[in-house]
Design a protein that fits this description.
The chain has 535 residues and is an alpha/beta fold. It has helices at 17-40, 44-58, 88-100, 120-142, 147-163, 168-178, 181-191, 195-209, 228-238, 242-252, 265-268, 287-293, 297-301, 306-327, 372-376, 380-383, 385-406, 434-451, 467-475, 479-491, 499-502, 519-522, and strands at 215-216, 239-241, 271-274, 280-282, 332-335, 338-339, 346-347, 351-355, 358-366, 415-425, 463-466. The chain has 22 helices and eleven strands.
Length: 535
Amino acid sequence: MTDTGQLRISTRNCGSKGGNAAMGQIGREVYRCKLARYLSQSIDEDMISLISAVVAVQSGHASGFQAVHDLPGEALGAELGSPYHIPPWSLETLVNELLAIPKPKGFGVGQTRLLNAQRFQTLRVLQGILIKLENAEDGVFLKNHDVFYEMARIAQRQFPWQRGVANAPHLYRSILLYGTGSARDFFEDDAGLAIPDFVKVGACFSGALAGRDYTERTKDLTMIGITPKVREAALARLAISHGEARVRAARMRKNQRHTGYSPSILRDFPIIAFGSRGERLRAPIPELIMYRYTTGLYLDVVRGGAAVWTEIGKRFETYVLGYLDAMMAPYTVSGEVTYGPKKAQYRTPDILVTGPAGIVGLIECKAKRMSFAARYADDPISEAAIGFDELAKGIFQLWRFFAHARCGWTGTLTLAPDCQPVIVTADSWLAMASNQAENVLATAHRLADAEGGIDTEDRREIAFCQIDDVEFALQNGTADSFLSAARTIASGEKKGFMLSVAHAANIGVQRSYPFKDRIGELLPWMGDFREEPTV
């Protein structure tokens, strides 16, 4: 897995409100107009070719050097902090701005002054303008908002890129949640092709475009069992024509207050088709193709209704239970049970982790995904009230069990003195989001007050953990190191940190993903597919 213990904030300015506000009010339009002027004087296909070449070099593909004339050999595999690295979140923003900004009248007729699309320095200049624009926009935001809201938005934008999606847990979990059961049925009825075929086509084009400038739309996939009809049905979800991309990008980003937090056409369609028949397929950032056929399946099934989402929630709980059962030895892991008298029975939290001294971990699972608006909103609590309320209910349920155990109502279900309550989420709801966490806790306290009988000692500090971080901690540690890190982010010196950051990555333990062999059960073709994605 990606070393999520090294997650870090890149070079965005989150300084004082006063300085940022002044800079924002004066500079925002200046930098916005400058960026628009440069990008309007460029040929989209050439610029996307340049961006894909730089991404290729940064990803370790030497073939990208052929299209960029001013990159030295040391740029190969350059990482965050290198002068030859441009973060993928900045490149994604530049692609969207390139597509959304209109070309000047008469563009392409006669002699037109164009950006040089064969030099890395061109992107470096554009990134510099973009950073200044985003810092100016931060200043406007920070004039009326706490800096911790901005830190949370930066984390939402940057950390998923640093984690990456090319790993076995991400692939298996995504297909399990969004590509099986009623979610699979909804997708296949709506898209006209099977989930395994969609993923196969996506994996094939992801491999074909990684380190390459472009590939042909009519790529023959019959040797891997994909007919032209199936290929086109899959590309209808993966690719968009250049003209339509410009129309959609302009509409998506119209009137957005912050450039870096505006919707991205590449999350819907990571491949852009050029040519009169859309024959040339280009992926500015090929990793987003894998994102689209894994996490991005959410886009396809979100319209499936309550029944689909109820089933996804149950599968997520089952996944977390099975994963912990495989990784938490010597502790015993079990699912929820009922307790109390027959006329007033309650359910325990979703998962119980038990040792010789009693229950050491109480875990609630929440599978709900954040909408784009909630992820980057000025007021995320209002934008996603239902999701944050679900977290508050989870906290309340944990506290209520502590109260019932204190009163002796839970029978043989006894608690260890250091029992740690945990909420495991499928999305990064509270990543570096202290203000949002305070609001969620306030709602939980109101629920506990209304219930009655839940004392202060029952209202223990909660560890909020995204499933990616749980997987990282347990594959780079032990059950005890995981529990220790959970306690640290709940009430220790790293309170509010992400679990993966708090967990020591160098404790000398590395364990394989327990469900790697199950991927073939969901995607039977993977054992024979020579261009399978990295897992």
